[in-house]
């Protein structure tokens, strides 16, 4: 059976992250405006930035999907109408609220509409409902197994299916959570989640007010609601066979290092599978090894292989084995000198790894200079401009990291 290469969909929390997602291989990006999406604390894009971002992506043959997936209140409606009129150049709009769905249909009748995972599509009748209304794509609820996804595809083959393959998972059912609203008056359903599920907690016994009992840490940590991160890089072939046509990486709030590193590996894995499936199977451990170099919680395959909540919700403290040191801003080929925007301390003697869209390589820093060509031993200040000599040609937007 012919299998179409799935789209790789990467997060773009701001313009810099959008550029890195595109440079490292995304077929499409998803992003939000200043309001009406579910990442209110991300930098996001104002109207002029959003149109600039769409133009930039289109010049690089990358599609842009705009998130308008809040659950709207009455006071949101007028602003939503004005916002939607500014999105004519987008490739699709992502919604969860049925009212917003019909607003998009009325204001932008030719626009593709994607149904957000917030809409909790967990069965083929729900998928058929949205498809018959005119939805182009459904972002499936994260709680579905591979077998359930395959059945939805077989029953409702006319609609595209998008599924998360990597990143943080919410403890609430596909993200519809009131915990943040209850504890902090910040609504997750309006993009302002305080993530109280990831806090550390103590217990208070009713007859002992003010006396706090710690929840003791064991080998799994002391988090009681914190979920592991999703990682499906070893199982992309199975998702493809189930009919998933878009692989989504979570992380609009994450760093450019996260966006670049994850996008690069999933791009490589997808391309390897379609170039020569045996190559993909032989490199599965390599893909995971590379993803382990990016800060993450313990990995899980989520619900794809059955609903093992005990496996998903055990300890989820961060694991960090590599440090993001800087970004290549320019390279003087004649003198083999790279100009670096530093993000963490760099010093002479560091063994570093260069993360590049096509190839990674390692080197030792023998010399450093500041932006005035004065030789230095270290660069401790964030975003300091420095220079170093490289035995390899480097490219703009290559990333420098080192093992901790």
Trace the largest sheet across and list its strands: 1-2-3-4-5-6-7-11
Strand content: 15-25%
Write out the CATH superfamily name of the largest domain: Aldolase class I
Sheet/helix structural class: alpha/beta
CATH topology of the largest domain: TIM Barrel
Mean pLDDT, as a whole number?
A: 88
Low-confidence stretches: none
CATH architecture of the largest domain: Alpha-Beta Barrel
Number of helices: 12
Please tell me about this protein's structure.
The relative contact order is 0.11. The chain contains twelve helices and 22 strands. It has an eight-stranded parallel barrel with strand order 1-2-3-4-5-6-7-11, surrounded by five helices. The protein is globular, with a radius of gyration of 22 Å. The longest helix has 20 residues, at 256-275. It folds into two domains: 7-174 and 226-312, Aldolase class I (TIM Barrel, Alpha-Beta Barrel), CATH 3.20.20.70; 323-403, Translation factors (Elongation Factor Tu (Ef-tu), domain 3, Beta Barrel), CATH 2.40.30. The protein has helices at residues 15-23, 47-59, 77-85, 98-107, 124-133, 146-155, 179-184, 236-241, 256-275, 277-282, 284-291, 309-312, and strands spanning 7-11, 28-32, 63-67, 92-95, 112-115, 137-139, 160-168, 202-204, 212-214, 229-231, 246-249, 299-300, 322-332, 337-342, 346-347, 351-355, 361-364, 368-370, 375-376, 378-379, 385-389, 399-403. The chain is of the alpha/beta class and 404 residues long.
